[in-house]
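Hello forum,

I keep getting stuck at the same step: I have a sequence, I want structure tokens, and every attempt I make locally crashes halfway through. Rather than fight my setup again tonight, could one of you with a working pipeline run this one for me? It's a single chain of 417 residues.
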Amino acid sequence: MTGSSVDQLESLRQVVGVVREGNLFQQAKLEGTGLTTDFVSIEDFIAHCPFTTKDELARDRLEHQPYGTNISFPLERYTRFHQTSGTKGEPMAWLDLPEDWEWMLGNWGRVLDAAGVKPGARCYFAFSFGPFLGFWTAFEAASRRGCLCMPGGGMSSEQRLRSILEQGAEYLFCTPTYALRLAEVAAGRGMDVASSEIRKIIVAGEPGGSMPELRRRISEAWGGVELFDHYGMTEVGPVAYETPGGEGGLRVILESYLAEVVCPTSGEPLGEAKQGELVLTTLGRAGCPVLRYRTGDLVLPHWGEDENGSPTLDLVGGILGRVDDMIVVRGVNLYPTSVDAVVRRFEEVLEYQVVVDETPTMTEVSVRAEASPKLSNSLEKALTEAFSLRIPVESVETGSLPRFEMKAQRWVRRDGK
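Reply #2:
Ran it on my machine without issues. Output:
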């Protein structure tokens, strides 16, 4: 299912027209498919257009350095440079035209509307402001809205906290992991963030922003503030914002994206309430577009209508995990998000790390937790109960495990060959 509309169809035809004219990567992808700009429906487009994968894009950039061939116009037309985070391999360069950048800012405008960010609000961005796209578009969209925008690039966690408190920031933009990290640093420095002027924390960058236990922990650490989840990727831009009601979950901006949910293995479309992989086509980023891009993100779709009768796609529970993050341990499927949900029940666990030992014959998983031996035993029992699988938990010294500002990388794989 796609939740298609007349506007989506027209936008899609325009994108296909642009790439047919001058995008070598997309021309090669569409060769022999018979797809032209005269397709009669979204279903017709899907039937003729192949998927695009991250591996294909990465290979294209390696073979045609530095920017690859997925650009639709002469290089001098592009004014914005960013890179993917590199969490799953080498970072990929990504270029944007001025009009494509404006399109992304418009999408962030939708996010800010939904989050209730008004002109004049004081917004703090706990973000590095390096080449990773991250909150760059959020910062500029909020600035244009008339907000006072405070960048936290190049600062330590303590410096950021002091700035948040001294400047009376009302909205904090960061990853879920870093929101907890800031609260941890504040507690260690005797800084009272619970009585700060922060009224809402807008999170993005990793799964977890819609997980009830993590949301509760972040909210309590910051004095009961609201959390607001958001989802986007460098390759596609700002995609979704928290569904109305403040309970987590994400609503895709269907005016800007053609969205599908498919079986991760077969690629076949999935219906209502069936967990699958999110596939996105950008409808307003023709300078460096993706057509039927396999995001690798697992979602549970709910198709419906809003109060005006327009189609909606809600991702129940937000981003549930990554297709390529799943491991099988003695016949049990484990996702990082499911393990995280169990660990987050134990507030005394300051940080943790999952160690995956892989051999040709067997995969084993263990956890290292900054917690007392007694608490570690309790966590081990909880993991066993949750997965019917013994996952040993080792107690380690407080502060010995890595902390993360951007996407957390708590799973460490070791090749046991």
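The chain is about 30% helix and 25% strand. If your local run keeps crashing, start a new thread with the error log.
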